[in-house]
Design a protein that fits this description.
Strand content: 15-25%
Distance between the termini: 111 Å
Strand order of the largest sheet: 10-9-13-14-16-15
Helix content: 25-40%
Largest sheet: 6 strands, mixed
Number of strands: 19
CATH architecture of the largest domain: 2-Layer Sandwich
Structural class: alpha+beta
Number of helices: 14
Shape: elongated
Length: about 425
C-alpha cells in the first residue's frame, strides 16, 4: 500500500481534482500525479488511456493560467496509466481560468491535500513573482471597469483605449492581466479619501466628514471640490477691483492632495486622511518617504516617485507638471505668509500641514500688537520712575527672565531704551 503525500497524488480517472493538484504542485514545491491508480496506490489502468491522455494535456493547457505546460511532463506507462510530473512554477500563482486569480481558483499543497490558497498567500506569490513594485503586480481582482477613468481621460483629451492599456501600465503585455495600477484607477478601487472638518484645533469635535471612493482619478476631483467648500474666502475691494483672500490657496490644496494620492503606499489598505480646522489643513498619506529621501530633499525638489506609472498617468492628464515641483510650489505660495507649511514624517506616514493664511495674518497681527503694548508699559514705567532693573521688568510684565532679556534687547535696538551697568547692577532707562 502506498500513501499520498505532499508531493504525491493518485487519481483513478480524469477529474477536476487533477487540475487542482497540478495548480497546487506548481504553486508549492512540485509533485507527481499518478492517473489510473486507486487510493491505495495500486495501478488499475485506464480503459482508453490515449483519449484520457489527450483530455488531460488539452485541459491543463487551456484551463490553467499562466501557462504551466513548460513545468509539466506526461508519461504513458505500460500498464495503461499516466504519470504527470509537475515542477514548481516561476510565474505564481497558477489558477483555474474559469475561476480567476482568487481563492476559489488558486490552490496550494497542504499535506496530502490540494486546498484553496488564502488571499494573503496569493498576494505573497504575486509579490515574489512580480517584484516589489506594487503598482506593477498582477491584481487579484480582474473583473474591472473604467467608466470613471475614461470620463477623466476624455475630459482631458487623452486617448483611453484597450490597446493603450499596456503603455499606461494597467495591463501586462505577456498575460493580458490587469495590474494593481489598473485596480487603483478602476471603478472598483478599494482605497478611499476621508475628509473630516473639526471645530477645534485638537481635532476632537466633528463638524462634518465625508468619504470619497471610486477611481482615484474621480477622487481627486471630488475631494478637491469638497475641500474648496471648506476654504473660506475673505474678499475685499481695492477701488473697483475685488481681491480674494482664501484661507488656503487653491493651488496649495491641489498640490497637497495630488502629492498624497500619487506618492502613497497602495500596498497598505488604509485611507488618505485630510483634517480641516480653523488653524490648518492636514493631508496624511500612508507609506512615509521612499527610502533614501529626507524632508529637506523633497523641499529641494528631489523626487523618487513610489508609483512611477501612476505619476506618468497624472502627468499625461496634466494633473502634475513634473516630478518634485509640487512641494516646492506649495512653499512658494506661502512665501509671504507668517506661518509656513510643515512636513511631518514617520516610518509609515507622510503629513503635509497647510496653515490657514488668514488665521496666520490675524495671529501675527495680534502678536505684534501684544509686543507694542508691552513696550508701551515699559516706557510709561520709565517715564514715571526714571529707571528699572531686569527683575523689575520681569515683575512688571509677568514674564520670565529670558523673555525679559529679549524684549529689552528689542527695545534697545528700536532706540527706545538704553542700558547701563552690568550683571545685577544693570538698569534700563529711556534713550
Amino acid at each position: 500500500m502506498k500513501f499520498e503525500s505532499e508531493n504525491t497524488e493518485y487519481k483513478c480517472t480524469i477529474t477536476e481534482g487533477i487540475y487542482k493538484s497540478v495548480i497546487a504542485f506548481a504553486n508549492t514545491s512540485g509533485g507527481v500525479i499518478y492517473v489510473g491508480y486507486d487510493d491505495n496506490g495500486e495501478a488499475i489502468g485506464l480503459d482508453d488511456v490515449d483519449n484520457v491522455y489527450t483530455q488531460i494535456t488539452n485541459a491543463i493547457r487551456d484551463g490553467i493560467s499562466p501557462d504551466v505546460t513548460m513545468f509539466t511532463k506526461y508519461t504513458l506507462q505500460k500498464n495503461n496509466t499516466i504519470l504527470i510530473e509537475v515542477s514548481e512554477g516561476t510565474a505564481k500563482p497558477y489558477y483555474l481560468k474559469s475561476k480567476g486569480i482568487k481563492p476559489s481558483g488558486v490552490y496550494v499543497r497542504q499535506g496530502a491535500s490540494s486546498v484553496q490558497a488564502s488571499g494573503e498567500q496569493i498576494r505573497m506569490m504575486i509579490k515574489l513573482s512580480d517584484g516589489d513594485v506594487f503598482e506593477e503586480r498582477r491584481s487579484i481582482e480582474q473583473e474591472l471597469t473604467f467608466e470613471q477613468a475614461r470620463a477623466v481621460f476624455v475630459k482631458q483629451s487623452v486617448e483611453f483605449s484597450e490597446d493603450k492599456f499596456p503603455t499606461l501600465g494597467i495591463r501586462n503585455i505577456s498575460d493580458k492581466m490587469y495590474t494593481n495600477l489598473a485596480l487603483i484607477i478602476s471603478d472598483q478601487c478599494e482605497h478611499t479619501i476621508k475628509v473630516a472638518v473639526f471645530a477645534d484645533a485638537a481635532n476632537t469635535v466633528f463638524k462634518a466628514h465625508k468619504e470619497f471612493d471610486g477611481s482615484v482619478l474621480k477622487q481627486v476631483d471630488d475631494a478637491f471640490e469638497y475641500l474648496m467648500l471648506c476654504n473660506r474666502n475673505c474678499s475685499e475691494f481695492a477701488g473697483v477691483a475685488r481681491v480674494d483672500h482664501w484661507d488656503y490657496h487653491p493651488e496649495a490644496i491641489r498640490e497637497a492632495l495630488l502629492n498624497a494620492i500619487v506618492h502613497r503606499e497602495y500596498a497598505l489598505s488604509g485611507s488618505i486622511i485630510i483634517n480641516v480646522n480653523d488653524a490648518c489643513m492636514e493631508f496624511v498619506s500612508l507609506g512615509g518617504l521612499v527610502p533614501g529621501l529626507s524632508a529637506d530633499d523633497i523641499k529641494s525638489g528631489i523626487s523618487q516617485p513610489r508609483n512611477r506609472r501612476m505619476a506618468e498617468i497624472f502627468h499625461r492628464l496634466n494633473y502634475i507638471e513634473s516630478y518634485g515641483t509640487g512641494i516646492r510650489r506649495i512653499f512658494a505660495l506661502y512665501e509671504s505668509c507668517a506661518q509656513k507649511p510643515e512636513i511631518e514624517i514617520t516610518t509609515g506616514t507622510f503629513k503635509m500641514i497647510l496653515p490657514n493664511m488668514n488665521q496666520a495674518i490675524t495671529d501675527n497681527s495680534n502678536s505684534a500688537h501684544a509686543i507694542k503694548k508691552q513696550w508701551q508699559i515699559v516706557t510709561d514705567y520709565l517715564t514715571e520712575h526714571g529707571e528699572m532693573t531686569a527683575s523689575e521688568l520681569q515683575e512688571l510684565l509677568n514674564i520670565k527672565r529670558t523673555r525679559a532679556y529679549t524684549l529689552a534687547k528689542e527695545m534697545e535696538k528700536a532706540g527706545l531704551i538704553a542700558a547701563s551697568g552690568r550683571g545685577e547692577d544693570k538698569k534700563y532707562h529711556l534713550q
